[in-house]
Inverse folding.
């Protein structure tokens, strides 16, 4: 009997242990020496040995490496004011943060090591130890699938809720509040360009967008859109419509007064319950129901908004303009289309990703311009290019760089070799504005938007304005966080320092761009290395003449031969 | 993806190469804060004393800076906005100074009947300095027909950053549990908007008015350290003033503050 008791006790203990282990499976292990070691080898360079985000490499990074001592994490699956889950931390370490300097560690650290790091990072903030309950996760149930209608509703909310203030009219991060934003540590920060999903720090799935919106990005200016940020929180859609009607009336009848009063009471009650919940109070069943009803409306709207934001960006980052995507200027007969001509819509853009120039001082470690998109047409005499690039601010030279005293402004330079290398193995000029072999440049500045200057350069700090400025036709515009620049030039010029163009020849091309508001100046810029473009040769019209002619001739020959053979055969038969 | 990884690796390596020590921002972390008692017990106070006085500013009074209004001109730019970090009135009276008892461990309870509100009107917070008792909700008012976001830079409590849309006239914020402050309150949408909240564990806190006056009432008789905090002039944490309050008595204690 006694033995039995011991056995059942042991089984009970074993059972409890099993349950505990299972419950623990989702969480990081206890912080260990191993975690410290991995952290110090892989993370401390940026995040600092004490986790304060002050590693030796931090100075040059923007966004700054996270300071772990405050417990503020941008990318969470949890509600506003809540800590991230262990899984959230693990996922960020695994996948990295696109558009920032945080790489994914999936291939360079084992999963075990990544879990160890999660545990170790949590030791930098006592709040992880102190919190008794696990963080409240944002519910992803009742997702509203993507549809045109949903996107349309979301579009309205985007304006009503104030997303437009920072993210701008069409989402390019160029809102009127964008230039003055700073993060919790006082560093300047820019709102996401929502048209470039590949740069979203926490991923661009609709669920990701939904979570960022509801939970906010802790430590950044991005607020949480918690329940009562929404209009008429606590009312159903119909009730909200009705109340809006009442609120718009100049005078209300006694009955209407009473009706609106009831709506207000209902809203106050919902807000009260939401605050009770946020403060950690237990909700009664009825209160929980009130909360759930109110949140149902909020979550619906949030899914619409997430669907709208999702619609702003292509699903994937475009393929760079190499290989099959090489930039091909298309032949047209007659005049080349002007900047705003609809004909440009028919062309595919060449996508040229830009990276910070980090070879020569001053360097740019924190680029704000993602890429430049290029289209081109040509005719028998001229070629026209249309360059577009996103820049959150239109800086036209009214700000001064503190370090150099020079004027900060937005600009673009398009770089070609002076002489096209003959054959694929012939050397190109050095990509940083040439060297022994010179380059030929078109330099456009936002302060002189209708002008492009021709330069010849033999190095990034060795550029000269050409004495003989050729005839370049220029148009440009800045709208909703995007520059458009249109440049037209004749294929051939009399200037030996200019590039001469002819169809079918692959010509190296490269770009530099400056965002004045980001402190870009001189060598501090974003750029590409060499790409190529080609004036796509016109397929010869002779193809409509020769091939059919040859076909007809061959056929004729065949028939002729057949006739000859047949005649001979019949003669042979006669002769027999 | 591969090119992206390569690019970030290049950036990373280059950064390592450039190296250089990164000087941490010495801003908020070393900001002088209020000092709170370890524990506080509410009790009935009979025949308490009063501490009152005037806070004045010493030195050349700088002209108040007009803030640059960068958006929503029609509403935010209708009147001039001033940097309120130093508001000096007639007779050098210093507004917005918190004067408080540093070391009180028992005394009256909060008067919970007064509504705590911070208004956002014409894209300006008022009051500029707000005392908020622990466990009490402060309500944010939006009397502008523009969007604001209420961003409270707490570090002991959880920071708040919550959108208050133009249609949301009143938005109560959840109460906090830990004494802290003053913490900065900002609106990121209108970057010039600035205010301070002090989350306090006992009611012996006062904020000076335009005449620089403050009053602490119902103070139980005893010896106390009297502290102050001012946004631009700092604190007297290192050398608080000793005061002795007699039952039913009145103590006058003035302060003269300089820019820190």
């Amino acid at each position: 009997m006694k033995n039995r008791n011991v056995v059942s006790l042991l089984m009970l203990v074993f059972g409890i242990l099993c349950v505990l282990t299972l419950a623990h499976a989702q969480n990081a292990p206890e912080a260990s020496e191993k975690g410290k070691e991995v952290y110090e080898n892989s993370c401390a360079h940026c995040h600092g040995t004490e986790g304060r985000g002050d590693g030796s490499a931090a100075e040059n990074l923007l966004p700054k490496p996270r300071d772990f001592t405050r417990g503020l994490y941008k990318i969470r699956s949890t509600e506003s004011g809540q800590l991230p889950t262990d899984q959230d931390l693990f996922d960020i370490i695994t996948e990295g943060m696109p558009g920032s300097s945080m790489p994914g560690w999936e291939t360079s650290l084992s999963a075990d090591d990544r879990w160890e790091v999660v545990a170790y990072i949590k030791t930098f903030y006592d709040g992880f130890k102190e919190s008794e309950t696990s963080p409240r996760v944002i519910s992803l149930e009742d997702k509203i699938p993507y549809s045109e209608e949903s996107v349309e509703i979301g579009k309205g909310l985007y304006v009503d809720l104030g997303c437009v203030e920072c993210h701008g009219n069409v989402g390019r991060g160029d809102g009127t509040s964008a230039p003055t934003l700073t993060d919790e540590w006082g560093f300047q920060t820019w709102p996401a360009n929502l048209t470039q999903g590949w740069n979203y720090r926490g991923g661009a799935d609709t669920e990701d967008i939904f979570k960022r919106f509801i939970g906010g990005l802790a430590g950044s200016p991005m607020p949480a859109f918690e329940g009562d940020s929404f209009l008429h929180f606590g009312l159903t859609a119909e009730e909200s419509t009705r109340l809006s009607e009442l609120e718009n009336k100049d005078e209300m009848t006694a009955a209407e007064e009473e009706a609106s009063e009831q709506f207000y009471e209902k809203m106050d009650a919902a807000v009260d319950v939401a605050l009770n919940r946020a403060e950690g109070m237990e909700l009664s069943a009825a209160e929980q129901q009130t909360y759930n009803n109110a949140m149902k409306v909020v979550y619906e709207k949030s899914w619409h908004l997430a669907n709208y934001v999702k619609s702003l960006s292509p699903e994937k980052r475009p393929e760079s303009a190499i290989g099959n995507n090489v930039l091909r200027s298309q032949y047209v007969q007659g005049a080349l289309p002007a900047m705003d001509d609809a004909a440009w819509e028919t062309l595919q853009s060449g996508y040229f990703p830009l990276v910070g120039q980090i070879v020569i001082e001053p360097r740019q470690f924190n680029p704000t311009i993602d890429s430049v998109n290029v289209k081109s047409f040509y005719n028998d005499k001229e070629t026209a290019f249309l360059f577009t690039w996103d820049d959150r601010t239109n800086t036209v030279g009214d700000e001064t760089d503190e370090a150099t005293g020079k004027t900060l402004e937005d600009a673009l330079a398009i770089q070609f070799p002076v002489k096209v290398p003959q054959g694929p193995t012939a050397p190109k000029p050095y990509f940083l504005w040439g060297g022994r072999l010179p380059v030929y440049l078109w330099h456009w500045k936002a302060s002189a938007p209708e002008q492009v200057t021709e330069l010849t350069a033999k190095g990034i700090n060795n550029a000269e304005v050409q004495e003989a400025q050729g005839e370049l036709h220029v148009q440009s515009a800045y709208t909703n966080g995007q520059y458009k620049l249109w440049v037209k030039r004749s294929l051939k010029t009399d200037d030996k320092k200019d590039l001469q163009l002819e169809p079918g020849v692959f010509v190296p091309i490269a770009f530099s761009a400056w965002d004045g508001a980001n402190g870009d100046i001189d060598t501090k810029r974003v750029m590409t290395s060499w790409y190529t473009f080609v004036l796509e040769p016109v397929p010869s019209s002779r193809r409509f003449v020769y091939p059919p002619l040859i076909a007809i001739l061959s056929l004729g020959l065949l028939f002729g031969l057949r006739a000859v053979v047949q005649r001979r055969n019949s003669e042979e038969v006669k002769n027999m | 993806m591969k090119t992206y990884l390569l690019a970030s690796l290049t950036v990373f390596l280059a950064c390592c190469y450039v190296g250089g020590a990164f000087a941490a921002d010495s801003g908020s972390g070393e900001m002088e804060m209020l000092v709170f008692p370890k524990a506080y017990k509410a009790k009935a106070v009979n025949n308490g004393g009063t501490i009152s006085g005037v806070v004045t500013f010493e030195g050349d009074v700088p002209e108040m800076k007009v803030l640059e209004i960068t958006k929503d001109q029609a509403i935010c730019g209708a009147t001039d906005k001033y940097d309120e970090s130093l508001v000096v009135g007639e007779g050098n009276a210093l507004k917005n100074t918190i004067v408080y008892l540093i070391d009180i461990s028992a005394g009256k309870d909060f008067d919970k009947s007064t509504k705590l509100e911070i208004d956002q009107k014409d894209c300006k917070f008022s009051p500029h300095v707000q005392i908020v008792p622990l466990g009490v909700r402060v309500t944010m008012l939006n009397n502008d027909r523009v969007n604001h976001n209420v961003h409270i830079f707490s570090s002991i409590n959880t920071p708040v950053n919550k959108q208050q849309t133009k249609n949301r006239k009143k938005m109560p914020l959840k109460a906090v549990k830990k004494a802290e402050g003053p913490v900065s309150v900002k609106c990121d949408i209108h970057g010039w908007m600035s205010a301070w909240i002090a989350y306090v564990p006992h009611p012996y806190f006062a904020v000076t008015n335009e005449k620089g006056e403050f009053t602490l009432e119902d103070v139980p008789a005893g010896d106390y350290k009297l502290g102050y905090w001012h946004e631009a002039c700092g604190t007297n944490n290192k050398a608080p003033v000793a005061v002795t309050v007699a039952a039913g008595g009145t103590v006058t204690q003035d302060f003269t503050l300089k820019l820190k």
About this structure: The longest helix of chain B spans residues 2-18.
